[in-house]
Amino acid sequence: MTGGQDARDEALASQYEAYPYPERDPRDEAKRLLIGSPSHLREIDYWVFGATRSRSLPLRVLIAGCGTGDAAIMLGTHLARAGRAGEIVALDRSEKALSIARARAEVRGLENIRFMQGSLSDPDQLGLGAFDYIDCCGVLHHLPDPDAALAGLVRVLAPGGGMGLMVYAPYGRTGVYMLQDALARLAPASEAPGERLDVARRVMRHLPATAWLRANGNFGDHLSGGDAGLYDLLLNPRDRAYDVPALFGLLDRAGLEATCLMEPARYDPALLLPDPRLRARVEGLDLRSRAALAEELAGNMATHVVYVVRRGEEAGRADPFAPDAVPVMREIPGSELVKQMTPDNRLRFAFGTLEVLLPLPGQARGLLPLIDGVRTVRELGEAMESRGVSAKRFAGLWREVFTTLERVNRVLLRAPE
Protein backbone atom coordinates (compact mmCIF):
# COMPACT_ATOMS: atom_id res chain seq x y z
CA MET A 1 0.00 0.00 0.00
CA THR A 2 1.15 3.45 -0.82
CA GLY A 3 3.32 5.58 1.40
CA GLY A 4 5.25 2.57 2.75
CA GLN A 5 4.27 0.25 5.55
CA ASP A 6 3.87 1.43 9.11
CA ALA A 7 2.75 -0.60 12.12
CA ARG A 8 -0.92 -0.05 11.32
CA ASP A 9 -0.45 -1.05 7.73
CA GLU A 10 1.34 -4.24 8.76
CA ALA A 11 -1.58 -5.01 11.07
CA LEU A 12 -3.97 -4.40 8.18
CA ALA A 13 -2.06 -6.85 6.00
CA SER A 14 -2.28 -9.44 8.75
CA GLN A 15 -6.01 -8.79 9.11
CA TYR A 16 -6.85 -9.50 5.49
CA GLU A 17 -4.75 -12.66 5.41
CA ALA A 18 -6.50 -13.94 8.53
CA TYR A 19 -10.00 -12.67 7.67
CA PRO A 20 -10.37 -11.87 3.96
CA TYR A 21 -13.16 -9.37 3.46
CA PRO A 22 -15.95 -9.60 2.59
CA GLU A 23 -16.47 -13.19 3.67
CA ARG A 24 -17.50 -15.15 0.57
CA ASP A 25 -18.09 -18.82 -0.27
CA PRO A 26 -17.25 -19.59 -3.93
CA ARG A 27 -19.99 -22.23 -3.99
CA ASP A 28 -22.56 -19.45 -3.72
CA GLU A 29 -21.67 -18.27 -7.24
CA ALA A 30 -23.86 -21.07 -8.56
CA LYS A 31 -26.84 -19.49 -6.80
CA ARG A 32 -26.55 -15.73 -7.27
CA LEU A 33 -24.61 -12.74 -8.57
CA LEU A 34 -23.92 -9.97 -6.05
CA ILE A 35 -24.83 -6.57 -7.53
CA GLY A 36 -23.68 -3.18 -6.31
CA SER A 37 -22.06 0.15 -7.05
CA PRO A 38 -19.59 1.18 -8.27
CA SER A 39 -18.60 -0.90 -11.31
CA HIS A 40 -21.96 -2.12 -12.58
CA LEU A 41 -21.37 -2.23 -16.34
CA ARG A 42 -24.45 -0.16 -17.22
CA GLU A 43 -23.37 2.47 -14.70
CA ILE A 44 -19.89 2.63 -16.21
CA ASP A 45 -21.36 3.01 -19.70
CA TYR A 46 -23.62 5.84 -18.56
CA TRP A 47 -22.06 7.67 -15.63
CA VAL A 48 -18.43 7.46 -16.82
CA PHE A 49 -18.74 7.46 -20.61
CA GLY A 50 -22.08 9.26 -20.98
CA ALA A 51 -23.55 6.40 -23.07
CA THR A 52 -21.35 7.58 -25.97
CA ARG A 53 -18.60 4.93 -25.94
CA SER A 54 -19.21 2.03 -28.31
CA ARG A 55 -19.93 -1.34 -26.74
CA SER A 56 -17.69 -2.87 -29.42
CA LEU A 57 -14.59 -1.25 -27.91
CA PRO A 58 -12.70 -3.49 -25.48
CA LEU A 59 -12.89 -2.28 -21.89
CA ARG A 60 -9.66 -2.53 -19.94
CA VAL A 61 -10.31 -2.49 -16.19
CA LEU A 62 -8.20 -2.36 -13.03
CA ILE A 63 -9.77 -3.45 -9.76
CA ALA A 64 -7.41 -1.71 -7.34
CA GLY A 65 -7.80 -3.72 -4.16
CA CYS A 66 -10.13 -6.50 -5.26
CA GLY A 67 -10.43 -8.25 -1.90
CA THR A 68 -12.47 -11.42 -2.27
CA GLY A 69 -13.71 -10.29 -5.65
CA ASP A 70 -17.18 -8.74 -5.54
CA ALA A 71 -16.51 -6.02 -8.14
CA ALA A 72 -14.35 -8.23 -10.37
CA ILE A 73 -16.91 -11.04 -10.41
CA MET A 74 -19.84 -8.70 -11.06
CA LEU A 75 -18.17 -6.79 -13.89
CA GLY A 76 -16.58 -9.89 -15.39
CA THR A 77 -19.98 -11.57 -15.46
CA HIS A 78 -21.65 -8.51 -17.01
CA LEU A 79 -19.05 -8.36 -19.79
CA ALA A 80 -19.31 -12.10 -20.46
CA ARG A 81 -23.11 -12.11 -20.54
CA ALA A 82 -23.15 -9.17 -22.94
CA GLY A 83 -20.53 -10.76 -25.17
CA ARG A 84 -18.31 -7.72 -24.76
CA ALA A 85 -14.53 -7.76 -25.07
CA GLY A 86 -12.44 -6.70 -22.12
CA GLU A 87 -9.80 -7.56 -19.59
CA ILE A 88 -10.07 -7.10 -15.84
CA VAL A 89 -6.87 -6.98 -13.81
CA ALA A 90 -7.82 -7.75 -10.20
CA LEU A 91 -5.00 -6.51 -7.95
CA ASP A 92 -4.67 -7.18 -4.25
CA ARG A 93 -1.80 -7.80 -1.88
CA SER A 94 -3.62 -10.54 0.06
CA GLU A 95 -3.04 -13.95 -1.46
CA LYS A 96 -5.78 -15.39 0.74
CA ALA A 97 -8.33 -12.92 -0.61
CA LEU A 98 -7.17 -13.52 -4.19
CA SER A 99 -7.54 -17.27 -3.78
CA ILE A 100 -11.20 -16.80 -2.89
CA ALA A 101 -11.76 -14.43 -5.80
CA ARG A 102 -10.08 -16.89 -8.19
CA ALA A 103 -12.27 -19.71 -6.96
CA ARG A 104 -15.38 -17.60 -7.50
CA ALA A 105 -14.32 -16.83 -11.06
CA GLU A 106 -13.67 -20.53 -11.72
CA VAL A 107 -17.16 -21.47 -10.58
CA ARG A 108 -18.55 -18.96 -13.09
CA GLY A 109 -16.16 -19.98 -15.84
CA LEU A 110 -14.95 -16.40 -16.24
CA GLU A 111 -11.88 -16.05 -18.44
CA ASN A 112 -11.76 -12.25 -18.63
CA ILE A 113 -10.20 -11.67 -15.18
CA ARG A 114 -6.47 -11.77 -14.45
CA PHE A 115 -5.68 -11.96 -10.75
CA MET A 116 -2.46 -10.38 -9.58
CA GLN A 117 -0.86 -10.08 -6.17
CA GLY A 118 0.75 -6.71 -5.67
CA SER A 119 0.75 -3.34 -3.93
CA LEU A 120 -1.04 -0.13 -4.86
CA SER A 121 2.01 1.89 -3.86
CA ASP A 122 3.17 2.41 -7.47
CA PRO A 123 0.66 0.93 -9.93
CA ASP A 124 2.44 2.53 -12.86
CA GLN A 125 5.56 0.52 -11.93
CA LEU A 126 3.77 -2.80 -12.31
CA GLY A 127 3.98 -2.60 -16.09
CA LEU A 128 0.26 -3.12 -16.56
CA GLY A 129 -0.33 -0.27 -19.01
CA ALA A 130 -3.29 2.09 -19.00
CA PHE A 131 -6.88 1.32 -18.04
CA ASP A 132 -10.17 2.66 -19.38
CA TYR A 133 -11.83 2.16 -16.02
CA ILE A 134 -10.46 1.76 -12.48
CA ASP A 135 -12.42 0.49 -9.49
CA CYS A 136 -11.09 1.43 -6.06
CA CYS A 137 -13.85 0.53 -3.64
CA GLY A 138 -13.36 0.50 0.12
CA VAL A 139 -9.58 0.86 -0.13
CA LEU A 140 -8.43 4.48 0.04
CA HIS A 141 -9.75 5.05 3.55
CA HIS A 142 -7.49 2.28 4.90
CA LEU A 143 -4.23 3.50 3.34
CA PRO A 144 -1.40 5.42 5.00
CA ASP A 145 -1.53 8.09 2.25
CA PRO A 146 -4.81 8.10 0.28
CA ASP A 147 -3.78 11.12 -1.76
CA ALA A 148 -0.63 9.42 -3.03
CA ALA A 149 -2.56 6.23 -3.79
CA LEU A 150 -5.20 8.07 -5.78
CA ALA A 151 -2.52 10.02 -7.66
CA GLY A 152 -0.92 6.70 -8.59
CA LEU A 153 -4.19 5.41 -9.99
CA VAL A 154 -4.64 8.58 -12.02
CA ARG A 155 -1.26 7.90 -13.62
CA VAL A 156 -2.49 4.58 -15.06
CA LEU A 157 -5.87 5.93 -16.16
CA ALA A 158 -6.18 6.09 -19.94
CA PRO A 159 -7.14 9.43 -21.53
CA GLY A 160 -10.91 9.76 -21.43
CA GLY A 161 -11.20 7.01 -18.84
CA GLY A 162 -12.84 7.11 -15.46
CA MET A 163 -12.98 5.57 -12.00
CA GLY A 164 -15.52 4.30 -9.52
CA LEU A 165 -14.56 5.05 -5.93
CA MET A 166 -16.07 4.27 -2.54
CA VAL A 167 -14.94 5.76 0.74
CA TYR A 168 -16.42 5.73 4.22
CA ALA A 169 -18.59 8.66 5.36
CA PRO A 170 -18.63 9.81 8.99
CA TYR A 171 -22.21 10.46 10.08
CA GLY A 172 -23.64 7.13 9.01
CA ARG A 173 -20.85 5.40 10.92
CA THR A 174 -21.88 6.93 14.22
CA GLY A 175 -21.00 4.51 16.98
CA VAL A 176 -18.34 2.68 14.99
CA TYR A 177 -15.41 4.87 15.92
CA MET A 178 -16.34 4.95 19.61
CA LEU A 179 -16.25 1.17 19.69
CA GLN A 180 -13.05 1.05 17.64
CA ASP A 181 -11.42 3.28 20.26
CA ALA A 182 -12.68 1.06 23.07
CA LEU A 183 -11.36 -2.07 21.40
CA ALA A 184 -8.02 -0.40 20.69
CA ARG A 185 -7.65 -0.10 24.47
CA LEU A 186 -8.79 -3.65 25.19
CA ALA A 187 -7.18 -5.39 22.20
CA PRO A 188 -4.44 -3.26 20.60
CA ALA A 189 -3.43 -3.87 17.00
CA SER A 190 -0.14 -5.36 18.19
CA GLU A 191 -2.00 -8.49 19.33
CA ALA A 192 -2.73 -11.43 17.04
CA PRO A 193 -5.90 -11.06 14.93
CA GLY A 194 -7.55 -14.09 16.54
CA GLU A 195 -7.08 -12.69 20.03
CA ARG A 196 -8.47 -9.32 19.01
CA LEU A 197 -11.51 -10.93 17.39
CA ASP A 198 -12.26 -12.89 20.54
CA VAL A 199 -12.26 -9.66 22.56
CA ALA A 200 -14.56 -7.97 20.03
CA ARG A 201 -17.05 -10.82 20.18
CA ARG A 202 -17.11 -10.65 23.97
CA VAL A 203 -17.62 -6.88 23.93
CA MET A 204 -20.50 -7.21 21.47
CA ARG A 205 -22.21 -9.75 23.72
CA HIS A 206 -22.15 -7.25 26.59
CA LEU A 207 -22.50 -3.97 24.68
CA PRO A 208 -24.60 -1.52 26.72
CA ALA A 209 -28.01 -0.60 25.38
CA THR A 210 -26.87 3.03 25.25
CA ALA A 211 -24.02 2.36 22.80
CA TRP A 212 -24.61 4.37 19.64
CA LEU A 213 -23.79 1.38 17.45
CA ARG A 214 -26.94 -0.33 18.72
CA ALA A 215 -29.03 2.52 17.29
CA ASN A 216 -27.27 2.48 13.92
CA GLY A 217 -29.02 0.28 11.37
CA ASN A 218 -26.33 0.57 8.71
CA PHE A 219 -24.20 -2.41 9.66
CA GLY A 220 -26.29 -5.52 9.49
CA ASP A 221 -24.00 -6.93 6.79
CA HIS A 222 -20.94 -6.44 8.98
CA LEU A 223 -22.45 -7.67 12.21
CA SER A 224 -23.95 -10.73 10.51
CA GLY A 225 -21.07 -11.15 8.04
CA GLY A 226 -19.02 -13.60 10.08
CA ASP A 227 -15.60 -13.01 11.54
CA ALA A 228 -14.41 -10.95 8.56
CA GLY A 229 -17.32 -8.53 8.81
CA LEU A 230 -16.96 -7.94 12.53
CA TYR A 231 -13.19 -7.55 12.30
CA ASP A 232 -13.37 -5.10 9.40
CA LEU A 233 -15.95 -2.95 11.16
CA LEU A 234 -14.51 -2.76 14.65
CA LEU A 235 -10.86 -3.83 14.58
CA ASN A 236 -9.50 -2.35 11.37
CA PRO A 237 -6.26 -0.63 12.39
CA ARG A 238 -6.72 2.31 10.01
CA ASP A 239 -10.17 3.62 9.17
CA ARG A 240 -10.83 7.21 8.17
CA ALA A 241 -14.05 8.74 6.92
CA TYR A 242 -14.69 11.54 4.42
CA ASP A 243 -17.61 13.91 4.63
CA VAL A 244 -18.70 15.52 1.35
CA PRO A 245 -16.30 18.51 1.55
CA ALA A 246 -13.40 16.19 2.40
CA LEU A 247 -14.32 13.87 -0.47
CA PHE A 248 -14.31 16.73 -2.95
CA GLY A 249 -11.01 17.91 -1.50
CA LEU A 250 -9.53 14.46 -2.17
CA LEU A 251 -10.77 14.57 -5.76
CA ASP A 252 -9.59 18.14 -6.32
CA ARG A 253 -6.07 17.32 -5.17
CA ALA A 254 -5.98 14.39 -7.62
CA GLY A 255 -7.21 16.51 -10.53
CA LEU A 256 -10.48 14.60 -10.72
CA GLU A 257 -14.08 15.70 -11.00
CA ALA A 258 -17.24 13.82 -10.12
CA THR A 259 -19.63 12.79 -12.86
CA CYS A 260 -22.06 11.28 -10.36
CA LEU A 261 -22.51 10.90 -6.63
CA MET A 262 -24.47 7.70 -6.20
CA GLU A 263 -27.41 8.00 -6.21
CA PRO A 264 -27.77 11.63 -7.35
CA ALA A 265 -31.10 12.12 -5.59
CA ARG A 266 -29.57 11.02 -2.30
CA TYR A 267 -27.50 14.21 -2.40
CA ASP A 268 -30.47 16.50 -3.06
CA PRO A 269 -31.52 18.13 0.24
CA ALA A 270 -34.77 19.33 -1.35
CA LEU A 271 -36.09 15.76 -1.05
CA LEU A 272 -35.68 16.04 2.71
CA LEU A 273 -37.09 19.56 3.09
CA PRO A 274 -40.66 19.90 1.82
CA ASP A 275 -41.06 23.36 3.36
CA PRO A 276 -41.15 25.86 0.42
CA ARG A 277 -39.12 28.48 2.27
CA LEU A 278 -36.40 25.97 3.05
CA ARG A 279 -36.38 24.74 -0.53
CA ALA A 280 -35.90 28.29 -1.73
CA ARG A 281 -32.79 28.52 0.43
CA VAL A 282 -31.54 25.20 -0.92
CA GLU A 283 -31.90 26.49 -4.49
CA GLY A 284 -29.39 29.23 -3.67
CA LEU A 285 -26.64 26.74 -2.83
CA ASP A 286 -24.06 25.38 -5.25
CA LEU A 287 -23.96 21.65 -5.99
CA ARG A 288 -21.24 20.85 -3.48
CA SER A 289 -23.00 22.73 -0.71
CA ARG A 290 -26.27 21.00 -1.55
CA ALA A 291 -24.58 17.59 -1.34
CA ALA A 292 -22.95 18.48 1.97
CA LEU A 293 -26.28 19.68 3.34
CA ALA A 294 -28.01 16.46 2.29
CA GLU A 295 -25.36 14.42 4.10
CA GLU A 296 -25.70 16.53 7.24
CA LEU A 297 -29.50 16.36 7.21
CA ALA A 298 -29.88 12.66 6.43
CA GLY A 299 -27.30 11.55 8.95
CA ASN A 300 -27.24 7.97 7.64
CA MET A 301 -24.69 8.04 4.81
CA ALA A 302 -22.09 5.45 5.80
CA THR A 303 -20.26 5.53 2.47
CA HIS A 304 -19.88 7.74 -0.57
CA VAL A 305 -19.81 6.12 -4.01
CA VAL A 306 -18.65 8.43 -6.78
CA TYR A 307 -17.79 8.13 -10.46
CA VAL A 308 -14.98 10.42 -11.55
CA VAL A 309 -12.95 11.46 -14.60
CA ARG A 310 -9.93 13.71 -15.01
CA ARG A 311 -10.81 17.36 -14.72
CA GLY A 312 -11.74 18.62 -18.16
CA GLU A 313 -12.26 15.15 -19.66
CA GLU A 314 -15.93 14.58 -18.85
CA ALA A 315 -17.63 12.90 -21.80
CA GLY A 316 -20.64 14.56 -23.33
CA ARG A 317 -23.72 12.69 -22.18
CA ALA A 318 -26.08 11.23 -24.77
CA ASP A 319 -29.43 12.99 -25.04
CA PRO A 320 -32.06 10.87 -23.25
CA PHE A 321 -34.84 12.69 -25.12
CA ALA A 322 -33.47 12.07 -28.60
CA PRO A 323 -35.77 9.80 -30.65
CA ASP A 324 -33.03 7.21 -31.24
CA ALA A 325 -31.84 7.04 -27.61
CA VAL A 326 -32.30 3.58 -26.05
CA PRO A 327 -33.27 3.60 -22.36
CA VAL A 328 -32.30 0.62 -20.25
CA MET A 329 -33.26 -0.43 -16.75
CA ARG A 330 -30.14 -0.50 -14.61
CA GLU A 331 -31.18 -3.78 -12.97
CA ILE A 332 -34.80 -4.00 -11.79
CA PRO A 333 -37.29 -4.57 -14.65
CA GLY A 334 -39.84 -1.83 -15.19
CA SER A 335 -42.68 -4.20 -14.34
CA GLU A 336 -41.14 -4.71 -10.91
CA LEU A 337 -40.73 -0.98 -10.33
CA VAL A 338 -44.43 -0.55 -11.05
CA LYS A 339 -45.20 -3.00 -8.25
CA GLN A 340 -43.25 -0.76 -5.88
CA MET A 341 -45.43 2.26 -6.67
CA THR A 342 -48.03 3.35 -4.14
CA PRO A 343 -51.71 3.77 -5.14
CA ASP A 344 -51.11 7.53 -5.48
CA ASN A 345 -48.26 6.89 -7.99
CA ARG A 346 -45.26 7.42 -5.83
CA LEU A 347 -42.22 5.16 -5.95
CA ARG A 348 -40.79 3.96 -2.68
CA PHE A 349 -37.03 4.30 -2.66
CA ALA A 350 -34.61 3.55 0.15
CA PHE A 351 -31.45 5.57 0.70
CA GLY A 352 -30.01 3.06 3.11
CA THR A 353 -32.19 3.29 6.22
CA LEU A 354 -34.04 6.36 4.90
CA GLU A 355 -37.11 5.83 2.72
CA VAL A 356 -38.35 8.55 0.39
CA LEU A 357 -41.36 8.69 -1.91
CA LEU A 358 -40.76 9.90 -5.46
CA PRO A 359 -43.83 11.11 -7.39
CA LEU A 360 -44.33 9.71 -10.89
CA PRO A 361 -47.08 10.32 -13.44
CA GLY A 362 -49.76 7.64 -13.40
CA GLN A 363 -49.00 6.69 -17.00
CA ALA A 364 -45.56 5.54 -15.87
CA ARG A 365 -47.32 2.29 -14.95
CA GLY A 366 -47.81 1.56 -18.63
CA LEU A 367 -44.51 2.97 -19.81
CA LEU A 368 -41.99 1.36 -17.47
CA PRO A 369 -42.63 -2.27 -18.52
CA LEU A 370 -41.91 -1.27 -22.14
CA ILE A 371 -38.32 -0.25 -21.36
CA ASP A 372 -36.34 -3.29 -22.44
CA GLY A 373 -32.98 -1.92 -23.56
CA VAL A 374 -33.99 -2.43 -27.19
CA ARG A 375 -36.81 0.00 -27.89
CA THR A 376 -35.81 3.56 -28.73
CA VAL A 377 -37.54 6.59 -27.29
CA ARG A 378 -39.35 6.91 -30.60
CA GLU A 379 -40.61 3.32 -30.35
CA LEU A 380 -41.68 3.83 -26.77
CA GLY A 381 -43.68 6.85 -27.89
CA GLU A 382 -45.32 4.87 -30.67
CA ALA A 383 -46.26 2.09 -28.27
CA MET A 384 -47.79 4.58 -25.86
CA GLU A 385 -49.59 6.37 -28.71
CA SER A 386 -51.31 3.08 -29.55
CA ARG A 387 -52.65 3.24 -26.00
CA GLY A 388 -54.05 6.71 -26.41
CA VAL A 389 -51.10 8.85 -25.25
CA SER A 390 -50.47 11.64 -27.76
CA ALA A 391 -46.97 12.45 -28.96
CA LYS A 392 -47.05 15.74 -27.08
CA ARG A 393 -48.19 14.09 -23.90
CA PHE A 394 -45.56 11.37 -24.27
CA ALA A 395 -42.76 13.93 -24.55
CA GLY A 396 -43.69 15.37 -21.17
CA LEU A 397 -44.30 11.94 -19.67
CA TRP A 398 -40.91 10.62 -20.80
CA ARG A 399 -39.07 13.70 -19.57
CA GLU A 400 -40.62 13.38 -16.13
CA VAL A 401 -40.09 9.61 -15.86
CA PHE A 402 -36.48 9.62 -17.07
CA THR A 403 -35.48 12.65 -15.01
CA THR A 404 -36.90 11.10 -11.85
CA LEU A 405 -35.57 7.58 -12.33
CA GLU A 406 -32.14 8.57 -13.60
CA ARG A 407 -31.60 10.42 -10.33
CA VAL A 408 -32.11 7.18 -8.43
CA ASN A 409 -30.00 5.16 -10.88
CA ARG A 410 -32.91 3.04 -12.07
CA VAL A 411 -33.23 4.10 -15.74
CA LEU A 412 -30.09 4.86 -17.76
CA LEU A 413 -29.19 4.89 -21.46
CA ARG A 414 -27.70 1.99 -23.39
CA ALA A 415 -24.26 2.59 -24.89
CA PRO A 416 -24.13 2.57 -28.71
CA GLU A 417 -23.08 -0.50 -30.68
Question: What does the average pLDDT come to?
Answer: 95
| Helical fraction | 25-40%
Which structural class fits the helix and strand makeup? alpha/beta
| Parts with pLDDT < 50 across at least 5 consecutive residues | none
Computed CA radius of gyration, to the nearest angstrom: 22 Å
Gap from first CA to last CA: 38 Å
Number of distinct beta strands = 11
Largest sheet: 7 strands, mixed
Backbone shape: globular
Q: How many discrete domains?
A: 2
| Total helical elements | 17
CATH architecture of the largest domain: 3-Layer(aba) Sandwich
DSSP strand (E) fraction?
15-25%
Looking at the structure, the CATH topology of the largest domain is Rossmann fold
List SSEs in N-to-C order. Answer: HHEHEHEEHEHHHHHHEHHEEHEEHHHE
Strands across the major sheet, in which order? 3-2-1-4-5-7-6
